[in-house]
Amino acid sequence: MALARGYAATDASKPLAPFTFERREPNADDVAISIQYCGVCHSDIHTVRNEWKNAVYPIVPGHEIVGVVTAVGSDVTKFKVGDKVGVGCFVDSCVGCASRDLDNEQYMPGLVQTYNSVEADGKTATQGGYSDHIVVKEGYVLSIPDNLPLDATAPLLCAGITLYSPLRHWNAGPGKKVAILGMGGLGHMGVKIAHAMGAEVTVLSHSLSKKEDGLKLGADHYYATSDAETFTKLAGSFDLIICTVGVAIDWNAYLGLLKVDGSMVIVGAPEDAIPVHAFSLIPGRRSLSGSMIGSIKETQEMLDFCGKHDIVSEIETIGIQEINEAYERVLKSDVRYRFVIDMASLAA
Ligand code: NAP
Ligand code: ZN
């Protein structure tokens, strides 16, 4: 066992605070990683505040992890000491299943999330990336393309793949009209990736305050959802709407913006149930679906795609000591567009 230092939540209502815990020594199939940067996802906040009613404390959050390999087990073939690598939202999958479904492993019952989960041994709590190092099975470690800077790449490990996966699944590309609802951490990655895929991209944001940024990042159009006219003007417009908003919205109004056979995909995860009228779906054969992150295979595909298109996140770097203030700013949508923790600050 090796001691790890990080920041943890010990209760839904307490701020995150310094925390020391144990990580295993690398097994034969493990990669040990010195964490350089970790993105701050809104899911970290939902989890530590127990908004999804599944928190098991203490929790070291963080699933947008990038760093450098410091040791590898004897069976590891894909990575060597010094490699730039990433770890996303899960560190094991298909535990107890007959085989690992490489295309859909994020949906398997045996999924082991990077934090607030239990390792395959059934005992050890997983702890995430707000920490100095992590030990992860080789099959759940991602390669970072050489041309991408580590700090701004961290958010690709969750925000990037969470938008890439549904954009691919619902065939975003030339001739497709795609709306990204919410211009936050996930949303701004959706704008960049959908644009690079060749789709016509519209941002639906609650105000026009980020319009200039949205257009610069690749949006073709930008509308405020606080303006009722947006809903009449854009009625029946989109092939695909990806909703990144993590609070209740007027779902029926947004479904009205879909074309015949259009799909609205939920990736933002509000606490409460979603009220939808049958007649928001029936006329127009519309679909309402959900999507969760992506498989490791698809995450590597996304990183390679981002490497090819020079896509990274727009970030604001913070020291770990600023994490509680950063959470409050995320809640106020006061970040352009992702906080990334510089883990060197742990030594300060
Ligand atoms: P974020 O950075 O806080 O962005 C959310 C955006 O939603 C905000 O920037 C804002 O965009 C919009 N918004 C916030 N409050 C709103 C309100 N009251 N009414 C309307 N719009 C509002 O969060 P994030 O990290 O992108 O995460 C978004 C959600 O996705 C969270 O619920 C998170 O847990 C979830 N998530 C899901 C997955 C998955 O696999 N499905 C993965 C990661 C995260 P505008 O200012 O443009 O309106
Ligand atoms: Zn996340």
UniProtKB/TrEMBL annotation:
Pfam families: ADH_N, ADH_zinc_N
PANTHER family for the chain: ALDEHYDE REDUCTASE
Record protein name field: Hydroxyacid dehydrogenase
Transmembrane segments: none
SMART domains: PKS_ER
Organism: Pseudorhizobium pelagicum
GO MF annotation terms: alcohol dehydrogenase (NADP+) activity; zinc ion binding
Domain Enoyl reductase (ER): 8-341
Gene3D superfamilies found in the cross-reference section: Medium-chain alcohol dehydrogenases, catalytic domain, NAD(P)-binding Rossmann-like Domain
